[in-house]
Design a protein that fits this description.
The protein is α/β, with parallel strands linked by helices. Helix content is about 40%, strand content about 15%.
């Protein structure tokens, strides 16, 4: 479950209601068929969102220990149920990116060796096969391990930029909500 740095329930509710993550939009999906992608941390945020929104119909496609290139492979994308209408995309705590070359990547790419390309391919697939589905990009949770924290912050930037570029909902667990594993 999520741990929050010294905040009470009132403060947490305020943060949620005023964050980039639009709970008003997501509340309209209570009872919807949801799919969760990500790494091992997916279980934590899946449980939280499932409980918060009283979700009953969801599929957890989290893949422990993997980078987004593997998490969003065609084989895994094909596991999305045809009636899914809310798809959460997360992951990135396991690396697969470096600060030195982040600025060299093309946000419009469809190259699987480019973090933007990996997400663009996944979003293309989802929009083609589940055209009515809403996509929520979720930045990785911060880690208490410093090596993983840098990955979380870099992937947070990537998810944020792609959400903007591809008109997806963005939930910033890394910077906005300060959620830790």
């Amino acid at each position: 479950m999520f741990r929050f740095a010294q905040r009470n329930n009132f403060e947490l509710e305020y943060i949620y209601r005023n964050s980039v993550f639009s709970f008003a939009i997501l509340n309209s999906f209570i009872g919807s068929k949801s799919v969760f992608f990500g790494d091992s941390r997916t279980t934590s945020y899946t449980e939280y969102l499932r409980d918060y929104f009283s979700m009953t119909g969801y599929t957890n496609l989290g893949y422990s220990g993997q980078v987004p290139k593997v998490i969003y492979s065609l084989e895994r994308l094909q596991q999305i149920p045809s009636d899914a209408n809310l798809i959460f995309m997360a992951g990135g705590i396991n690396g697969g990116i470096s600060e030195e070359n982040l600025q060299d990547y093309d946000i419009t790419s469809r190259d699987t060796n480019n973090p933007f390309g990996v997400l663009n391919i996944a979003i293309d697939y989802i929009r083609e096969n589940n055209p009515l589905a809403n996509i929520v990009l979720i930045s990785p949770m911060l880690s208490f391990l410093s090596s993983r924290e840098s990955y979380a912050r870099l992937w947070s930037q990537v998810y944020n930029l792609i959400a903007d570029y591809r008109c997806c909902i963005f939930c910033d667990l890394t910077n906005r909500l300060n959620i830790h594993e």
